[in-house]
Amino acid sequence: MERAIFAGGCFWCMVKPFDEQPGIHSVVSGYTGGHVENPTYEQVKQNTTGHTEAVEILFDPALISYEELLDVYWQQTDPTDAFGQFEDRGDNYRPVIFYTTETQKLAAEKSKAELASSQRFTDPIVTTIEAAQPFYPAELYHQEYYKKDPENFARNHAKRAQFVEENWQ
């Protein structure tokens, strides 16, 4: 198994697209990139921990490549918005690809450059690519939220779903 970490706004909305892919062992909602050990949701949403909401994905590279995960990632985000994603605003919702190996870093940089040169978006691609830091799983009620409360998930996912439909399909 390999590990990938992506931040793209609300972690509730980032789980399902990866969870549905072949070769995915687990998708865990959590926090990373900050300076507070074992942060809580309440701390992170105060935007004082330096953490961003993210998902940690364990995957079988024989069944799905990191490059394929990058393709899924880009299509869940607005890569031109550095200050949050959709209705979720602030540094704790910023889009980041956290690489765990040098190979992942190079693949992420290549993927970002290809997206920028595709001219799909007129604004610059501002998603950052950063070295992975400790990942802290979120509280249990956040895990697989789309399965636990599909109606609330759909409400929280509405702007993202509209953006994806308009820009990626």
From TrEMBL:
Coiled coil residues, start to end: none
Transmembrane segments: none
Catalytic residues as annotated in Swiss-Prot or TrEMBL: C10
Single annotated GO MF: peptide-methionine (S)-S-oxide reductase activity
UniProt protein name: Peptide methionine sulfoxide reductase MsrA
Enzyme Commission number(s) from the entry: 1.8.4.11
Pfam families the record matches: PMSR
Keyword tRNA-binding: no
Catalytic activity field: [thioredoxin]-disulfide + L-methionine + H2O = L-methionine (S)-S-oxide + [thioredoxin]-dithiol; L-methionyl-[protein] + [thioredoxin]-disulfide + H2O = L-methionyl-(S)-S-oxide-[protein] + [thioredoxin]-dithiol
Species for this entry: Enterococcus sulfureus ATCC 49903
Chain's gene name: msrA
Domain Peptide methionine sulphoxide reductase MsrA: 4-153
The entry's keywords: Oxidoreductase
Role of this protein: Has an important function as a repair enzyme for proteins that have been inactivated by oxidation. Catalyzes the reversible oxidation-reduction of methionine sulfoxide in proteins to methionine.
Family to which the UniProt record says this protein belongs: Belongs to the MsrA Met sulfoxide reductase family.
InterPro entries hit by this protein: Met_Sox_Rdtase_MsrA_dom, Met_Sox_Rdtase_MsrA_sf
Keyword Oxidoreductase attributed: yes
